[in-house]
């Protein structure tokens, strides 16, 4: 009886063990339970469908699944699923134990740096605002997404960004201005730029907010021809406008006191002063003026484009003055061989008025005086600096045969008729008449009724 009871107990023990094993079957998915002795791990993941690696051995099926036939102790479990970070855990199972574990998989996020030109643009990812550029998005969702950038005074722009993993990537977006951007340059620089009658600055300068359309542009620089044009611009356009301004000619006036000095420009004789020109190239000139009896003067002058430059020379005297009267008047005077004029008459006086001869060089000078019907006369004179020398010279008449050539009538009677030679004719019509050798009579124009030439007999052969 005791032996029979022992066999019955062993039978029920085996049945309990078998039932315990069968009771674990509902926790495993059909077809995934391996009938083998040992420990078991039931592995689930959130989300499901992850690949399972247990102790470096890949499980044949994705989660949830049961790994059977394990030995008691620690086991390393790895769960992997595309788009999610890898999850790991160590599970310790006891002998004969069936352990359930669950691994939470975190979605993978991209690492994206969004950069724009200009900086400070607003960033929207799938219509959600994230901030302003430059913007680092450390949790950028995987996949393809719409990224929109917008900035003041610029046209918004949307780009498609695709992120597949955690590899950092940079997105560069250049925003187009909603207006034109013009840069103005000129040669020479410093010219004033005016757009649509508004001054924007001096070259080099820029107009960064120029609306699309036509604009009147004027670039001006003192002393240069103006640049004028009508420009057509478009939104987002960037253009450089470079112009070369032509220098206007300058105006130069040269005055000397006293005048009539010889003027040289850069050692080239030009003319006598005063001198004026309205079309002289703008540059630096060396001016030199020379006038006999005065010290030569040299001056450097800059002629500016489009401007007038006036240069005045006040000449310093280095000579003297000669005041000469002659008897008779009308004597031609030469100084050192140069004709200096004729002594002027003084009414009907036999002595002339003084002839002023200026700019007489210092030192000994030679005077020569001539008049028809008189002997030439030569005189030497010493002139000092800034000295005035007064001279009076008398010319001797040449003896001539007295042959009357003219009849002067002042009336009808014989006493009003005169024969002789006209020696002087005055501007007022009066004449100086020689009626006998060495005897002169002046007839006024008002009393002269006629002047008749006397026929001359041809000389006999």
Describe the structure.
The chain has 461 residues and is mostly beta strands. The chain folds into six domains: 25-104, Immunoglobulin-like (Sandwich), CATH 2.60.40; 109-177, Sandwich (Immunoglobulin-like), CATH 2.60.40.1120; 180-244, Immunoglobulin-like; 250-311, Carboxypeptidase-like, regulatory domain (Immunoglobulin-like, Sandwich), CATH 2.60.40; 319-394, Immunoglobulin-like (Sandwich), CATH 2.60.40.3070; 406-453. Helix content is 5%, strand content 55%. The chain has one helix and 42 strands. The chain has a five-stranded antiparallel sheet with strand order 41-40-39-38-42, with no helix packed on it. The chain has a four-stranded antiparallel sheet with strand order 3-2-5-6, with no helix packed on it. Strands 10-9-12-14 form a four-stranded antiparallel sheet, with no helix packed on it. Strand 25 (262-265) and strand 26 form a beta hairpin. The longest helix is centred in the first third of the chain and has 22 residues, at 2-23.
């Amino acid at each position: 009886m005791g032996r029979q009871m022992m066999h019955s107990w062993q039978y029920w023990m085996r049945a309990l063990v078998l039932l315990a094993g069968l009771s674990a079957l509902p926790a495993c998915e059909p077809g995934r339970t391996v009938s083998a002795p040992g420990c078991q791990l039931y592995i689930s993941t959130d989300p499901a469908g992850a690949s399972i690696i247990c102790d470096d051995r890949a499980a044949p099926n994705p989660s949830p699944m049961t790994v059977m036939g394990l030995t008691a102790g620690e086991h390393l479990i790895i769960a992997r699923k595309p788009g999610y970070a890898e999850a790991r855990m160590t599970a310790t199972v006891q002998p004969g134990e069936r352990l359930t574990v669950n691994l939470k998989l975190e979605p993978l996020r991209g690492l994206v740096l969004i950069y724009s030109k200009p900086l400070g643009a607003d960033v929207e990812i799938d219509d959600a605002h994230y901030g302003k550029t430059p913007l680092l998005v450390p949790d950028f969702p995987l996949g393809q997404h719409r990224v929109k950038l917008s900035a003041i005074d610029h046209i918004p722009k949307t780009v498609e960004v695709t992120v597949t993993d955690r590899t950092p990537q940079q997105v560069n977006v250049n925003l187009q201005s909603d207006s034109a951007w013009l840069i103005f340059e000129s040669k020479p620089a410093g010219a004033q730029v005016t757009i649509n009658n508004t001054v924007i600055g001096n070259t080099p300068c820029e107009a960064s907010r120029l609306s699309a359309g036509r604009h009147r542009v004027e670039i001006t620089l003192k002393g240069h021809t103006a640049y004028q044009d009508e420009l057509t611009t478009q939104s987002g356009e960037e253009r450089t406008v470079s112009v070369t301004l032509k220098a206007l000619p300058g105006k130069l006036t040269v005055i000397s006191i006293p005048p009539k000095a010889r003027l040289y420009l850069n050692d080239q004789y030009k003319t006598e002063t005063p001198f004026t020109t309205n079309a002289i190239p703008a540059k630096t000139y060396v001016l030199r003026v020379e006038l006999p009896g005065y010290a030569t003067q040299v001056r450097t002058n800059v002629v500016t484009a489009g401007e007038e430059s006036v240069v005045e020379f006040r000449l310093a005297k280095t000579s003297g003055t000669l005041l000469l009267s002659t008897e008779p008047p009308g004597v031609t005077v030469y100084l050192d061989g140069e004709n200096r004029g004729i002594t002027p008459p003084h009414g009907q006086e036999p002595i002339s008025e003084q002839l002023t001869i200026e700019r007489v060089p210092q030192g000994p000078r030679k005077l020569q005086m001539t008049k028809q019907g008189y002997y030439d006369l030569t005189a030497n004179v010493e002139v000092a600096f800034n000295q005035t020398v007064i001279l009076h010279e008398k010319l001797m008449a040449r003896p001539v045969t007295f042959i009357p050539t003219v009849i002067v009538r002042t009336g009808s009677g014989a006493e009003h008729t005169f024969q002789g030679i006209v020696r002087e004719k005055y501007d007022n019509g009066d004449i100086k008449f020689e009626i006998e050798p060495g005897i002169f009579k002046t007839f006024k124009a008002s009393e002269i009724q006629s002047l008749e030439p006397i026929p001359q007999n041809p000389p006999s052969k």
